[in-house]
Amino acid sequence: MQEQQPNSSPNRIIDLFMQTTGRRADATAVIYLGTRYSYRRLEEMTRIFAAALTDLGIRPGQKVMLYIPNGIQWVAAWLGIQRMGGVCVPITPIYPAHDVQYIANDCEAAAILCADTNFGYVKKAWPETGIRKVIVTRMADLLPAWKRGFGYLFDVIPKGKIVLDENTFGLRQLLHRYRHAVDAMPAVDPCLERTAEILYTGGTTKYPKGVPINHDLFLISADEQIRMSEPLVPAEENVILGNAPLFHILGQTTGLATLLVGGTLILLPRINMDAALDAIQRFKVKSMIGVPMLYRMILEHVRLAQYDLSSVLFWFSGGDVLPVEVSKRWREKFGRCIYQGYGATETCGGVTMCPVTNDNPARSAGRPVASKKVRIIDPATLKPVEPGQPGELIVHSAHMVTSYLNKPEETAEAFIEMDGLTWYRTADVMSMDEAGNFFFVDRTVDTIKHKGYRVSASEIEAVLQEHPAVIGACVIGIPDKLAGERIKAYVVLKEDIKGITGYDLIKWCRQTLVSYKIPQYIEFRDMLPKSKVGKLLRREVRDEEGRRADG
What we know:
Elements: H1 13-24, E1 28-32, E2 35-38, H2 39-55, E3 63-67, H3 72-83, E4 87-90, H4 97-107, E5 109-115, H5 119-125, E6 133-137, H6 145-153, E7 168-170, H7 171-177, E8 195-201, E9 209-214, H8 215-226, E10 239-242, H9 249-253, E11 264-267, H10 273-283, E12 287-290, H11 292-299, E13 314-317, H12 324-334, E14 338-344, E15 349-353, E16 364-368, E17 372-377, E18 391-397, H13 408-414, E19 415-418, E20 421-432, E21 438-443, E22 447-450, E23 453-456, H14 457-465, E24 470-480, E25 484-493, H15 502-510, E26 521-524, H16 538-550
Parallel strand pairs: 1-11, 3-4, 3-5, 5-6, 6-7, 10-11, 10-12, 12-13, 13-14, 25-26
Antiparallel strand pairs: 1-2, 8-9, 14-15, 15-16, 16-21, 17-18, 18-20, 19-20, 20-21, 22-23, 24-25
Helix pairs in contact: 1-3, 2-3, 4-5, 11-12
């Protein structure tokens, strides 16, 4: 049976990618570690991976986790999963076994593609999940043979220990085995499964929340955001250095989406400053995506003067507020501004973005994109605030996310009905000026923005309080120029406990938490402020820390 051909009007991500491939077959789709992959070659890998999953017993509608760094494997697998009608579940490759197990069970994953370097975590989590098949890839798997050879010869490619068996497969061997099986794929009803992927986000709860993104929402949002730079560079001519991780909505809608319009995406498995700057110079990058901390790191890089970055026409910052000082230094150094945007996983990325045709005010997060309706309300009364006043931003759009996976309580808190429409409560405080520019004012007290990640204070507190010596914990974010916020924990120990240090508690956190959630500071207290009903008053701790910082 032949695989179904895409409709003239694409209603799945894979349909639009295949149409783009038909138009741009010989153009470069991805550049990974210096190797170019054409649209034709990427489409072939996508088809083979889809055929392999199907033959391994994965069926349309089933979930497949992606647990690997940015790379050509990530892109081919993401498209391949959707090609065979599956639902992709990308997660950060630095999650420990604890989080892998939780997410696998929460989404009921049937299979997982992991890196060899984190195969140990998968092996540890596997018995407690419903995962039936594991596919393992090495960083250099899809590079030319001579590059793999040199990489292993000079020991520059990380290597993890893996064991293959009847349920564990190597990606490169799998693609070789099924290279002739692509015509045997069954047809997939494009209306059968409308969920394209499930992204997991932190926020204010102990456990990550699954956000189901459907094809319609992704296609509208991605096209809108990837074309923001078109007044500066045509979409098909764009060469984007995607420094944001692909498991994050920022990396998808401002980078990965270029593959749906015919552009080129440059991927690095991890951030290396010299490698990133060299890629800009060598491949004449026209757009770069990054978080504020990355732009500060570039400005302070000791070898910055050795690189020619003049090809970049569109610098974009997301994930956190760009400091005015960084923005000013950038304009003085390069003669171009950094455009900002504001979005969330639940809104499929951009809610507001700075138009490249405007002289945007300092600190502006831009103006609402066409597909989103926004309001600024009083979070207590849900009534609109006076013009120019700060309030909570709520968002509505067509095909929007309306619930978290298996989280009815969190869904009820985050999604509200108003005037016959469903709105997402961002829990972020914004304001709008007379010209319609939006400005970020504050974030929910329970969420810490550390290095572009949204970190749940409650999750860290829960881990600390599981330590046998701890009776109470309070976690807040401390403002920091480089990281956005540093994570600080205030801890109360049981009365009879002696000899416990901050290092002991940080070591305890490392057993459960991913690295960017580990507290940088531990302060011991005799007690923590609480309300009359026993609720922890983080705001009082935050205010006290602010007074201390002000001297």
